[in-house]
Hints:
The chain is of the alpha/beta class. The chain contains 14 helices and nine strands.
Amino acid sequence: MSARPTYGFVGLGKMGGPMAANLARSGADIVVFDSAGSAVRALAEARVASSVAEVAAASETVFFSLPDGPVVLEVLGEVVAAADRVTRTVIDLSTVGIDAARAAYARASDGGIVYVDAPVSGGRNGAVAGTITVMWAGPGELLESHGVALEAMSKNVFHVGTQAGQGQALKLLNNFLSATATAATAEALLFGLTQGLELKTMLDVVNVSTGRSHASADKYVNRVLTGTFDSGFATSLMAKDVRLFAEAAAAAGSPNELGATVRALWDAMDAHAPAGDHTEVFTFLRDHGGH
């Protein structure tokens, strides 16, 4: 038996795959499972499992990187039910929403597992570079004991709270801000184009002025101006996150005027091109916005 802990990783999409690869390259022993299969085959450093139950039988700690709450609850159920399970901790890197995180925590607790709500931000590029942000909502002692593994995947780990749902709340408000800035930048630049201004000139000026944002400085310079629209974050995921934010804000009774408007915009884009890159909100508003 190896003296090193074996970490499990379930879900190897655009974010999970690079994170798992960074963890493996750090020297950790990892066992991975992804129902899609293609991402697993590309991860040469890992032992490939044939099921979630096999991951649970090999790993005291399992990381999730899954698309939404229903999938997380389904996979968590498989971990809990695994006959030879040694898993004691599930660290969920997914964006699932506050209610789903709380439900997952309760389900895990009933099965003798500690569930940590720890969503990430930074996109595929951040996942590859190991610079993503982790928003850890869980026990501080577990954060400390998993520090080496987390540092292999992230240079920005924040202990944001101790209750499941708090990590989700921070991730959702962050993505709401990102979605708002991305859409607002599109509208501003499209207005400028009607006045004969060049796209590059507008971005050059905005990015040294008070209108600058991550959207204008990164997404529009590197994904829109180039015409590549390749941020790696799908419209469907951005729409999901904005929807979760708007629903959570309404449930909390906090101001939601902008939230409702931004949600309507992203829902419309999601209906138009769910598989598209979210930076294509620029072309969506150019072609379908206005009157």
